[in-house]
Write a structure and sequence with these properties.
The complex is a heterotrimer of chains A (289), B (256) and C (233). By secondary structure, chain A is an alpha/beta fold. Chain A folds into 2 domains: 11-220, 3-Layer(aba) Sandwich (Rossmann fold), CATH 3.40.50.11310; 247-288, no CATH class. Chain A is built from 7 helices and 12 strands. The longest helix of chain A is centred in the first third of the chain and has 16 residues, at 11-26. The N and C termini of chain A lie far apart (41 Å). Helices cover 27% and strands 17% of the residues of chain A. In chain B, a hairpin with a 2-residue loop joins strand 9 (219-224) and strand 10. By secondary structure, chain B is of the alpha/beta class. Chain B starts with a strand and ends in a 5-residue tail after the last helix. Classes of the chains: A alpha/beta (289), B alpha/beta (256), C alpha/beta (233). Chain B binds chain C through residues 28, 31, 183, 186-187, 189-190, 193, 197, 214-215, 218-219, 232-233, 235-236, 239-240, 242-244, 247-248, 251, and chain C through 15-19, 56, 60-63, 81-82, 84-85, 100, 102-105, 116-117. Chain A: Keywords: 4Fe-4S, Iron, Iron-sulfur, Lyase, Metal-binding, S-adenosyl-L-methionine.
Chain lengths: 289, 256, 233
């Protein structure tokens, strides 16, 4: 028996957060204010995502937590341990086994199913923030669907870099209505957001929750002559040989040699388990051995 | 010819204090009207009521929409009014930084209104921005510079380009030459006169500078303590003022 | 087409000086005047008799106290500002004694502006401006400069060029030959003759008696309309 209420938060708070989640699902892409609680971790470490997960989890759930696609980074490990202790739920590193996945900065490579929920940690939920600092004004812009400013940002990108240089937190329009910040996922992941699973977004410091119901239309903003491209490094994974996954570039030594590996650790591991071999996999196993 | 703007009984109060009271006038297409008066005379309050920045307590501001119908902009829905203010209306602020996005390039500043009404072709937006910069005498080479790198006069010209790019029919100007050097003022006045003539713009200009209205405005409205005390042709009001206050105002101008 | 271009009936004018004990100064009473197409009428009378005042009232620059001033069918006394502006743009030209322009605008554009205002194509307007500036002997090297920096005589000639750029059917000329040398004076008188020949109705003030005799068909002594001066002339 744990000394905590199930999943740390009290029942009233979880109810309040669930109401915000339901409202968010009813109005896809709309930022619902909620009374964010102090959590036993600092802002910026996923307090929004943790509160949404806490309100979503049931004792029967299996939780997976990833940070930049990896299950074994500090942030992911801490949050997974947090819920093991406060909720006693089962945890997993396998995407297919999880019923709730909390993520920071990635969407798993493996397609999610209708019985899964993806919870995003969001630092800044307001996509218009950097161009219009006034919250009063941005809320009005959302309510009146005045999104010209969003394209000003993309215009500035092209004017400065010759192409849309925004490569993560790339703004999307949801169901032809709300412009939404997809959290700092790489734009490679943007097309995946039209998925079977429920997607929930929690911003703790900013006290906002928003959501995408399954199979929601999510369009990345662009120009006719500069269309959106879901780009990734032009390289297969050096570990598992995958050509379709988002890659991290890893510097190997002081001489500048480098390798590209899947950022989704579970995806990479399961491919290798199935016998796929990347260009540097053999050399790396040797070093490890 | 029908008026573009019909202003009827506009009053605005700040608590017990009068902002402006019972203002009436018609503005016809192509007309430039000046509003003069000292600080606190209610001229800026009136301008802000007309432009939809303030809600007057009484009265109507009827604007001729593109379909020819006269609509009261005070009671129309906010989305409609905001749509007007980025298509058919323009507002030139005294301080360019109030009317520009200082952290966005000159091209982005001019292009914003185009994008706001649905332009989605980068090449076309940029070409139009460059064209407009040329019309306000800003070199194409400055298109990617931010307004913070511009002089006061250039910022003001950029603000004008940003406002006129969508081909508005009515321009509100609040002390458009205030705070500029006299020589820069002259160039701006000439530019404004040319644009008003070429585009057939109607404009309402609030200023306390009688020399500016003499050169820019066809008609003049003199305000004092929230009331309109005199109206007429600009040169007639300045050369043959009828009201005691206007006579005082005109005779107080220092001669050079 | 009516023959009388300018018809003034029972016109009166007072100045009320609110800030000087509300003194009311009557300056004109019962003025009547008709000017036909192609006719030039000179206003005469001692200084202060009201010649310029009458001229300014016809132009709508001074507000009448009573009566009517009908120019090409528009009563300037009753007309809305935009009607007077249209009249000034299309019908009624005015060469005042002073040039009032936006500083830094080139002389050529200053002269061409009245033509641009009535929709003349830019190059044609500039061609007409070049022609007038040449006639009035403004050196070509000055055309791209603002007239605000010119001498009094040069400014006066630029003002005349501007006033004659558009073929106004009615014109008001306030001392058009003052401070001009003989050659330029002859040019201006030629412009006036030309305007009359194409049917312009002209009201002028000329201290230059010889000029007045040459171009004017009639003289009207305005002091007969001046309260307190009646019968004195």
């Amino acid at each position: 028996m744990s000394d905590y209420n199930f999943a740390y938060l009290d029942e009233q708070t979880k109810r309040m957060i669930r109401r915000a989640i339901l409202k968010g699902l009813a109005i896809p892409g709309y930022q619902v204010p909620f009374a964010s609680r102090e959590m036993p971790m600092p802002y910026g470490w996923g307090t929004g995502g943790v509160q949404v997960s806490a309100a979503t989890l049931t004792p029967e759930d299996t939780l997976k937590v990833i940070d930049q696609g990896a299950d074994d980074t500090t942030n992911a490990v801490s949050i997974r341990k947090f819920f093991e202790k406060t909720a006693g739920v089962a945890t997993t590193e396998e995407t297919a086994q999880a019923s709730v996945i909390q993520t920071r900065h990635r969407i798993p490579e493996e397609a999610l199913r209708e019985d899964q929920i993806l919870v995003y940690q969001v630092p800044i939920p307001e996509p218009l923030r950097f161009l219009e600092p006034s919250e009063v004004e941005t809320r009005k812009m959302h309510s009146l669907e005045e999104y010209g400013l969003m394209h000003v940002k993309l215009y500035e990108d092209i004017a400065k870099h010759g192409a849309i240089a925004t490569s993560y937190a790339y703004p999307v329009k949801v169901e032809g209505r709300y412009v939404m910040d997809p959290s700092p996922i790489p734009k490679f992941d943007n097309p995946k957001m039209e998925m079977a699973a429920i997607q929930l977004f929690g911003a703790g410091r900013e006290q906002r929750i928003y959501a995408l119901p399954p199979y929601c239309q999510v369009v990345s903003l662009d120009f006719e002559d500069f269309p959106f491209e879901a780009s990734k490094a032009e390289h297969p994974c050096d570990m598992c040989g995958a050509e379709d996954s988002y890659l991290d570039e890893v510097i190997m030594d002081d001489a500048g040699s480098r390798m590209f590996v899947c950022s989704d650790t579970d995806y990479c591991a399961s491919r290798r388990a199935a016998g796929h071999v990347g260009a540097q996999a053999a050399a790396l196993e040797e070093t490890a051995a | 010819m029908t008026p573009l703007l019909k202003v009827e009984n506009i009053s605005k109060y700040y608590g017990q204090r009068i902002g402006c009271q019972d203002v009436n006038f018609d503005l016809y297409p192509g007309e430039v009207m000046g509003i003069v008066g000292e600080s606190g005379s209610g001229k800026s309050t009136l301008l802000n009521c007309l432009a939809g920045h303030l809600t007057p307590e009484t009265g109507e501001v009827l604007f001729e929409m593109r379909d020819g119908a006269m609509r009261d902009t005070v009671t129309m829905s906010e989305p409609e009014r905001r749509m007007l203010s980025r298509t058919d209306w323009a507002f030139v602020h005294q301080h360019a930084r109030d009317g520009l996005r200082m952290n966005v390039s000159a091209g982005g500043n001019v292009g914003e209104r185009l994008m706001a009404v649905g332009a989605r072709h980068y090449g076309n937006i940029r070409a139009e921005a460059v064209d407009w910069l040329g019309r306000v005498e800003i070199s194409e080479s400055r298109v990617d510079d931010r307004p913070t790198q511009f002089s006061g006069g250039m910022q003001q010209r950029l603000q004008i380009a940003r406002n006129l790019v969508t081909g508005p029919r009515l321009v509100f100007m609040d002390e458009p030459t205030g705070g500029l050097d006299v020589s820069v003022q002259a160039r701006l006045l000439d530019l404004l006169r040319g644009l008003v003539r070429e585009m057939g713009l109607s404009a309402i200009i609030v200023t306390h500078d009688l020399a500016v209205v003499r050169l820019l405005a066809d008609r003049l409205m003199v305000m004092k303590d929230g009331h309109v005390v005199e109206t007429g042709l600009t040169d007639q009001v300045l050369d043959d003022p009828q009201h005691a206050y206007t006579q005082l105002l005109v005779s107080s101008v220092l001669q050079v | 087409m009516r023959n009388q271009m300018i018809e003034i009936r029972d016109l009166s004018k007072t100045f009320t000086l609110h800030n000087q004990g509300s003194a009311v100064i009557p300056v004109m009473d019962g003025a009547n005047l008709s000017v036909a197409r192609g006719e030039c009428v000179a206003l005469t009378g001692a200084s202060g008799a009201g010649k310029s005042t009458l001229m300014r009232m016809i132009y709508g620059n001074y507000l009448a106290a009573g009566g009517s001033i009908v120019v090409d069918g528009v009563d300037v006394v009753q007309a809305e500002p935009r009607e007077i502006l249209a009249l000034r743009r299309e019908v009624l030209g005015y060469v005042s004694q002073f040039l009032r322009v936006v500083p830094r605008v080139p002389t050529l554009d200053v002269v061409a502006e009245p033509l641009l205002a009535v929709g003349v194509e830019a190059e044609a307007a500039r061609e007409r401006a070049r022609d007038l500036l040449t006639q009035l002997r403004i050196p070509e090297r000055l055309w791209q400069l603002s007239p605000t920096s010119f001498s009094g005589g040069e400014q006066q000639r630029v003002n005349i060029a501007r006033g004659f750029a558009h073929s106004y059917p009615a014109m008001l000329l306030d001392e058009p030959t003052a401070s001009l040398d003989a050659t330029n004076r002859a040019t201006v008188l030629g412009l006036i003759e030309e305007a009359k020949a194409r049917g312009a109705a002209i009201v002028g003030i000329f201290h230059d008696e010889a000029a007045r005799d040459q171009v004017c068909d009639r003289e009207i002594d305005v002091s007969v309309f001046t309260p307190g001066l009646q019968g004195a002339a």
